[in-house]
Amino acid sequence: MFNLAIFYGLIGLGSLCLGIFAYDQLYGSPLKHPEEGLGVGRSWKDAGEIGETDDSLATLSEIQQVIDLQRRIIHDQMIDYQYPNGRYNISANKLEDLVIERNGNPIRSVVVSTWRSGSTFFGDIFTASPGVFYHFEPLVDFGINKIRGPPLASQALKNLKALFSCDYSSLDRYLERVKNRTYIFRANPPLWAQCQAHPSICYNHKFLSEMCKLFPFQLMKILRPTLHIAQELLADEKLGVRLVFLTRDPRGVFQSRKHRSFCQEGLDCSDPSLLCKDMVSDYNTAVELQKKYPSTFRVLRYEDLSLEPHKEVKKLIEFYGLDFHPNIKKYIDTHTKYDFGDPYTTFRDSKIAPFHWRTELEFEEVEEIQRNCFVPMKHWGYVPALNISHQREFNPVTNYMPHL
Ligand SMILES: *[C@@H]1O[C@H](CO)[C@@H](O)[C@H](O)[C@H]1NC(C)=O
Ligand SMILES: *[C@@H]1O[C@H](CO)[C@@H](O)[C@H](O)[C@H]1NC(C)=O
Ligand SMILES: *[C@@H]1O[C@H](CO)[C@@H](O)[C@H](O)[C@H]1NC(C)=O
């Protein structure tokens, strides 16, 4: 009898895991969302209106049902999770310590970057872990604009803090935009799974707030504010944010942006001199922040992450105070096609994403970017190409970033 019960219990647990795995496979694949702007076209005929006051009993009861189901899913997924329990300066040792619904304080992980700098790859690595609620491009309603100061900065920060508190009540403009760009919620696999099954509540404030409050890990990828603006999040001790600034070789950024029509919508995305200016400002801020917040701020270059993903992700996981969950390892193994373990593999032999620009760009284009970006390239450790044959061959990344 007893053994039989265990047997059926295991079968039940197994099917739950399979179900979750199926969700991951269906909705969690990283290549389904472009970095920005290309997700228009799918309409949500039967989706709830933004800002509607549909508090009908039917709606409330549907929300309640979904929330109860999601709570159980998270609970089951987190059973074997290794909580920090004092490691990494985080005392949490059980789920409710990290869940807003239970008056806990989630682990809040931020990546600040700019368009086409590897942040999609970065974010997807972490959403492979259970318990992650991913605020993907929370400032999409600010358009293709960098946020460098007033008047946009204060509204942007207000929205980011509202999301980090799972308060969607004042985010109608954001939700309006998201509704039109399904890749934004699709980047958040557990949310998207529920939206697929329950489209009529997907954009309901109450649903989103309650859903968000169930998750122990709140991950956010921010593209528009400069680091100088985004650092405000680090100053908020109650949030306890840990923030990574992700940067990339400007030649790689522009090669990648060239093929994105959304980028032509704004000078902030299409003009090299503006990117280069921001890279200088970001560098100066980063030097300051490393002194001011040595344990909650760090920088990362996309090239380093791509060349040694296992090593870099392990460092990031520890920095954020997370557990190196087997799903994360699996994600890296299946999404980085070449063998980093082989000491004879040099990137000169591998066609790898961050370095495509060496073959795709004309030397004249490279020269123009280098002219604009001479100073930030030096700061961030990127080597100028001297001529076309040099460009095709050389290692553009040094392992030296002065002062960082
Ligand atoms: C969706 O986007 C298109 C083009 O960007 C816009 O014309 C349309 O009004 C938007 N629809 C909604 C519901 O926001
Ligand atoms: C832990 O937190 C304290 C105070 O915020 C800080 O000084 C220390 O460097 C942190 N240690 C680690 C390992 O993050
Ligand atoms: C390109 O630059 C390299 C390094 O300075 C030099 O050795 C090589 O001769 C140059 N090639 C051409 C075609 O100018």
Structure description:
The chain is α/β, with parallel strands linked by helices and 404 residues long. It has a domain at 87-358: Rossmann fold (3-Layer(aba) Sandwich). The protein has helices spanning 2-27, 57-77, 119-127, 152-164, 172-179, 183-186, 189-197, 205-212, 227-230, 232-235, 250-257, 267-270, 272-292, 302-307, 309-320, 326-335, 357-360, 363-372, 374-380, 388-393; strands at 107-112, 132-136, 217-222, 242-247, 297-301. The chain has a five-stranded parallel beta sheet with strand order 2-3-1-4-5, sandwiched between helices. Helix 2 packs parallel to helix 8. It is globular and about 65 Å long. The termini are far apart. Residues 9-48 and 339-351 have low confidence and may be disordered. It binds 2-acetamido-2-deoxy-beta-D-glucopyranose (3 copies). The site of one 2-acetamido-2-deoxy-beta-D-glucopyranose has 4 residues, from helix 5.
Question: Which key terms come to mind for this protein?
Answer:
Rossmann fold; binds 2-acetamido-2-deoxy-beta-D-glucopyranose; 404 residues; globular; single chain; 5-stranded parallel beta sheet
List the helices and strands and how they pair.
Layout: H1 2-27, H2 57-77, E1 107-112, H3 119-127, E2 132-136, H4 152-164, H5 172-179, H6 183-186, H7 189-197, H8 205-212, E3 217-222, H9 227-230, H10 232-235, E4 242-247, H11 250-257, H12 267-270, H13 272-292, E5 297-301, H14 302-307, H15 309-320, H16 326-335, H17 357-360, H18 363-372, H19 374-380, H20 388-393
Parallel strand pairs: 1-3, 1-4, 2-3, 4-5
Helix pairs in contact: 2-8, 13-19
Pfam families: Sulfotransfer_1
Organism: Neodiprion lecontei (Redheaded pine sawfly)
Keywords: Membrane, Transmembrane, Transmembrane helix
